[in-house]
Amino acid sequence: MDLDNLISDLQQRLPLRRFEHVLRVTETARALAAMHGVPADKAETAALFHDIAKSMSADGLQRLLTDRGTGPELFKFNKELWHAPAGALIAEEEYGITDRDILNAIRFHTTGRAAMSDLEMVVYVADMIEPGREFPGVEELRRHAEGPLSGVMEACIVHSVQHLVSKRVPVHPDSIECYNYFVQ
User: Fold this and answer.
1) What confidence tier does 72 reach under pLDDT thresholds 50, 70, 90?
2) Which of 78, 77, 76, 26 lies closest to 51, judged by CA?
3) Domain count across the chain
4) Widest CA span of the chain, in angstroms?
5) Integer Cα distance of 112 and 127 in angstroms
6) Which of 28, 83, 104, 113 has its CA 20 to 30 A from that of 175?
7) pTM of the model
8) pLDDT, tens digit, for every residue of 104-145?
9) 136 contacts 54 by C-beta, under 8 angstroms
10) Residue 71 has pLDDT above 80, yes or no
11) What is the DSSP string of 120-165?
12) To which H or E segment does residue 176 belong?
């Protein structure tokens, strides 16, 4: 995988602000990977791909996912979640990524899931705490990143679920399972 070509493709596919976010997530993922013994090349690849489908239309995402056998269950939840599994499909089909851990890190970077791999946690956390993120509690989450990876993942999923509940929106079952896994 030629990362320079991928970066160039991302620059074409994404608006500037989203592209800059992807680069910040990638830097954060590399740093987290180094701190937690995760292969930096895998973290970099997964982070670069994590939002590759973010600028697709809802119709385009729905078509791609439906054509590849994703059940209608996903479409009951906020369309902001759809780009993650679509991104994993694009990474696999258009770029030849076959590493299941990288594909899962892309696929679950919005919802999380129970029993996440270290790479999956690195990408999820990096997306949430990258330096451009500004929301109440982000600084505390960044401080958690200096401790065990499972600890910062727990803090991130708790924050995420609490935020969704406070907005009174449906929480994806993968997020609930992730939350339960980390708080038990």
Assistant:
1) confident
2) 26
3) 1
4) 43
5) 12
6) 28
7) 0.96
8) 999 999 999 999 999 999 999 999 999 999 999 999 999 999
9) no
10) no
11) HHHHHHHHHHSTT---TTHHHHHHHTTS-HHHHHHHHHHHHHHHHH
12) helix 173-183
Would you say the C-alpha torsion 141, 142, 145, 146 has a positive or negative sign?
A: negative
Three-class secondary structure of residue 115 per DSSP: coil
Please count the residues of the chain. 184
Instruction: Enter the DSSP assignment of 101.
Output: H
99, with CB counted inside 10 A (0-12, 13-18, 19+), is: middle
In one letter, which amino acid is 67? Answer: D
Q: Which residue type sits at 144? A: H
The answer on pLDDT for 2 being more than 90 is no
Q: Domain with 65 in it: what CATH number?
A: 1.10.3210.10
Q: Tokens 């209608």 label which residue?
A: 72
Q: What is the pLDDT of residues 4-63, one digit of tens each?
A: 899 999 999 999 999 999 999 999 999 999 999 999 999 999 999 999 999 999 999 999
Containing structural domain, residue 21: 3-183
In order of 30, 50, 109, the CA distances from 119 in angstroms are 10, 12, 10
Closest CA to 177 of 101, 119, 122, 108: 108
Closest CA to 114 of 175, 71, 162: 175
